[in-house]
Specification:
The structure holds 2 protein chains of 2 kinds. Chain A is of the alpha/beta class. Chain A contains 7 helices and 10 strands. Chain B contains 12 helices and 18 strands. Classes of the chains: A alpha/beta, B alpha+beta.
Chain lengths: ~230, ~475
Amino acid sequence: MYTLTGVTKSYPKHGGTVSAVRDVDLSIADGEWLAIQGRTGSGKTTLLQLLGAMLGPDRGVVSLGGQDLARLPEAGLARVRAATVGFVFQGFNLIPTLSAQENVEAALIPQHSKDAQRRQRALAALASVGLADRAGHLPSELSGGQQQRVGIARALVKEPRVLLADEPTGNLDTSTRDEIMSLLEAQWRERGLTLVLVTHDTAIAARAQRIATMNDGCLSVASAQEKD
Amino acid sequence: MFFLTYLRRELRHRFRQAAVIAVGLAVGVGLVVVVTAAADGVKNAQATVLHALYGIGTDITVTTSPGKPSSTAKGSGAFSPGKNPHVIDELTGASLGVIGQSLVVRITRLPGVAAVAGGLADETDSKITVPSLAQLGPGGSPPASALSPVTFSVGGIDPARSRLGPYASGTISAGRGFAASDATSRVAVVDAGYARANRLKTGSAVTVAGRSFTVIGIISQPQGGSPADVYIPLAVDQQIGAGAYGASLHGQVNTIYVAAASSAAIPAVQKEIAALLPSATVTTSSSLASAVTGSLASTASLISDLGRWLAVAVLIAAFALAGLLTSAAAGRRVREFGTLKALGWRSRRIVVQVLGESFVTGVAGAVLGVGAGLGGAAVISAIAPVLPATVGADPGGPAPQNVTFNGSGRTDSTPAGYYHTVAVHLTAPVTLAVIILAVVLAMAGGLVAGALGSWRAARMRPADALASVE
């Protein structure tokens, strides 16, 4: 699915540059679940942005399905984000003025689907995360766990091949964290997704097939395990 | 439709801010409507002044200044007492210079001219009784009665072209008006008020310049335009009257009334006439504005100088306020826009969404602004007082001066009747064009604000959304 070769990304900071990702080589197989661990500021999120076609590398190649993302124009990158990659954010990033259903529908706008079809798919996605009865609720009327479920439904409604999750349980309590992880694992399994999950939590990382660790922009694959 | 749902929710969520922007735009736009309407009202009032002075249907008048007396000028005022008292009756037009009647024909041929008429306006018939030698006082001073002439105003009308000029504004209330066949007849049409005061009626005789004229009609004329008391045929007037400083009126007029083919043609016609007769004052309703004094002129100046700048300043402030508030709101939605980009939304789609919200705010501002503008214009029309406007008979030229010498020295005075004061009621008409202007301005304000706000969204990288959670 993904092949990263010599990928480097730097940011300007305090008059100098900070290398967030340094010379990373990585392959992620189709349908694989990769967990990325690391301290705050180690470059995990930057790596996720590179995988999600939201950033271009300064150097190296980020290949998704054999396509070099660095060579795509902005419109092409938007198409990748619209169809191939789904995002789950730590802070949920739901639009506060839209209902749960409308938030999920927002992910289908770039696909230009018809209103009725879009509504139907959004409701089905909400049902798949156990929120069919909360479709008309605003984010402020939902608990943190429910909001993250809406976020997962929004990421999955367009049936992407890749799900990128950035600390999806970082803002949740322990029991809700387990619920969300069970949900993500179930969706990964049922849909055959490629899942890249950034987490601080070693217990969560342990559920992945492979664990990679970011340290000061450098990536090392610490272990690999086969999930049944 | 998702676009509208999102738009509605956002506007409802930021209702107070959207309301502030809409009200700000409405104040600016409303002020523009009011000031523009008031300016239109002043223009109308200026046209009213022109029409009151020169008659409905007249777009342009041509006059000249009487200038200064020549060394050969004849003058009245000297009299020689005889054995018996006798009456001197003279018809003079002292306030205007004369123009050759041939110019009327030349103006008729100009492009854009619909009709032309020449006339003799602002003439005064003065009857003075010259005392006999026996009536003279000590030192040969005349009695008081000799110093109090009986006067009335006279207008010379071309009966073949009586649809232009001040005579055209009146209505024949008794008898008949002039016919082309009256051109050389000693007939007169008399103002209703003058006829009433002097017990004149159809068939009566009225004496002008010592000649008897038969009253063929009584004319009711609008108030405020200083109409003539007695109208006589132009050709007869030219024979019996005298111009300023005793100038002959044969083949002369002192005012030419011009109707343009359309209002758009007026400036061009004005220019052509000025080229034909460079010394003439060519007056239109707009050029008359500079010659008008009194409250109307003050109002016009106030609207032009203060009102227009105030409206522009408020409009700029409203645009700036709308732009800043929308930009600030867009700044608070960076994460939202970044999230949408992460979901695959193109920048263009986000810009359209923000512009849509601003456009609706602009429409609300337009509706409120037009409403406020209509209300303001209605208030002006309702409470505006009647404004007096004073203008000379030759609006562009210097006022003629009569010079008299007496025991206390030299006295300069403007001839009686030179200045006319017209009372006009100021209104503030709101035209469709003004409403369209208001709507366009408000929507432009909304779109400018939206463009400022969406510009930030358009140039933002989707990575900003994830960066905000790191």
